[in-house]
Amino acid sequence: MSDMKGMDVKGDSGGVVVDVECASFAMVQQVVIEAVDDKTVTYSTRAASISGAGPDGNLRKTFVTPRSEIWTQPIDGAPPPVALLPGAIGNLFLSKAGWEATTADGFQIYGAGTDLATFKYPWCAAGPRILSSLRVVPSSIVVRGHLADSAAFFELELLGPDAAPAQDVTWSSADFITVQLTARGAARLGLPAGATSARMWPTRIIVTGSPASDLSVSGEVDVLDSESAGAVQHLAWEEHGQPVALSLTLDGVSAFHVEPQRRTA
């Protein structure tokens, strides 16, 4: 394994050489395992935008990495690694060589070459990322993206007439989300008659509203922006006007003009 030396420790393939002074792995926050064999792991996750496409270039892509570049053992103080089983969703710990994975059309893993790919595992995991849970009463939640079987982009206001009143949206940074639609919304998206939901890949989810603790102020955040929000989001409500819980960084909380209540991830 590249960039590794020192002592022999038990890893995925029976033994990998790791630099004992610190660590050589960084965490990909959420992948979906597609296939596994005795040499490689195939997984889908969010890709980094290329060619100046901005957030719309953060597409869902599939990568292949040698098993020798994946740390699979539990790490003290870190989220558990994803199970190497098709369909499993979770965190993938990759070596520096693993993070260099590139698709045939030139996409790299989201966060490659940025501070999201901090090589601090398995033994130098100091300073976990600080996140806060903030309850927001939304006035608008706009999802931008494309359907799972189409490349055409569109925007959908989840508090508007094209979306059903109740929603339960989970963003994992690796898999499609499901949105509930009215008949009007299904028709606008070109879905068959009688369709009530759609699977889509979002590139932005912009939440505008007021913190539940102070309705006199308001703010806006894109919960798919890693500078402002955590990698996993769950937005659910039974009717319009109910608050949603956002997982935000300090910058994301500041956008709503409130003091953060911290947790780590």
Q: What does this entry look like structurally?
A:
- The protein has two helices and 16 strands.
- It starts with 6 loop residues before the first strand and ends with a strand.
- The chain is mainly beta and 265 residues long.
- The strands form four sheets. Strands 8, 9, 11, 12, 13, 15 and 16 form a seven-stranded antiparallel sheet that branches.
- The protein is 4% helix and 40% strand.
Rg for CA atoms: 20 Å
> What share of the residues does DSSP label as strand, in percent?
35-45%
Q: What class would the helix/strand composition place it in?
A: mainly beta
Q: Please mark out the parts with pLDDT under 50 across 5 or more consecutive residues, or reply none.
A: 1-21
Q: What's the story with the biggest beta sheet?
A: 7 strands, antiparallel
Listing every helix as H and every strand as E from the N terminus to the C terminus, the arrangement reads: EEEEEEEEEEEHEEEEHE
Please count the helical segments: 2
Per the principal axes of the C-alpha atoms, what is the gross shape?
Answer: globular
Instruction: Report, as a whole number of angstroms, the end-to-end distance.
Output: 27 Å
Estimate the helix proportion, in percent.
under 10%
Kindly state the mean pLDDT as a whole number? 89
Compute the number of strand runs.
16
